[in-house]
Every structure is written in C-alpha cells, then in structure tokens.
Amino acid sequence: MNGAWNVESTSSTTSAKPAIFTDGVNSISINPEVDNARVYLANCGNFIDIATLRTMLNTAANWEVSNAFFPESPIPAICDFRITLGVNDNVLNEKEFSIHPNPTKLDYFNIKNNTQQTLSQVSIYDLTGKKVLNTSINNSELDNRINLSGINSGVYLVKISNTAGNSLVKKLVIQ
Hints:
5% of the residues lie in helices and 33% in strands. By secondary structure, it is mainly beta. The chain folds into two domains: 1-83, no CATH class; 94-174, Immunoglobulin-like. The chain has a four-stranded antiparallel β-sheet, with no helix packed on it. Strand 5 and strand 6 (131-139) form a beta hairpin.
C-alpha cells in the first residue's frame, strides 16, 4: 500500500499490481502510503448492485487506514456480497463457460460456451499477474480450442471475455 503500485515486486517492501487488475474497477491504490487499511461500510453500505459496491470501495472516506496495528475497535457485521448480477454488470455467469480438460497435460484446452454469446478474447496470466498468452476469438462456437504450446507447467488464471466487454476468470492447471 504505497500509494501507486510498483512496476514490479522485487522485495518484501514492494507491491506490484497484477496485470489482470485495473485501479478503480477491480483494484484500488491507497495514497498516501499506509501500512494497513480495511474497508469500513456501516451496515455493509446498503449497496444494491455491483456498480454501487465498486463506487463505495473506491471512495477514500470508506477506508480506515493506519500505520500501526488497528485498535481493538468494533468492525461492521459481516457483509453478504452475494447478489444477483444483471447483464450489464461486466461479469459473465460462471455456469455459462467451462474449461476442459482441467488439469491438462495437453498443449491445449477448450472453452465450452454454453450460451449464444460471442467470445472475443482469452488471456492467460501466471500467479504473479504476468500475461503469458493473449488471443482473440471471434465466434460463438460451443467449443473453442486454445493453444498452450510454449507455456510451462503450473497454475494459471484464464480470463474469458465476450464482445460486450463482460469477462470471467477461471483457474487452469497445466501439468
């Protein structure tokens, strides 16, 4: 939490933002630098949709910050962040897409599209946030084969995007 993200994380005192994150969308930066921060939303903020929650999380006044350990102060009740998402919430339904085989020993995997949505992009990130593959897809086929040749064994995050700009991230294990 050193204000702006570091370009790379090279020591225990630096924090690099994974490429999959975008400040103001699915990550935040706290500036000026603090050692500790936690979101404080009284009554869970009474948000009604993802856009409202994102706005609340990106509002500095909703964060309690400290350069020491947090005092033994009460924190809000546990929030239930599970809500029904609409088509405009920029998140694909997890049940609409699957990846197989997973884990895979092959030089490819398939994305099964259980909808009529047209996919546009598939990006694969290693666990440090480095993008190792980016490929365009422009179809609504039921099975899309993604070539993994040249990618080492390990655990990866696969970001699947459609033409409307909605996306979903799934874990992929390459053996």
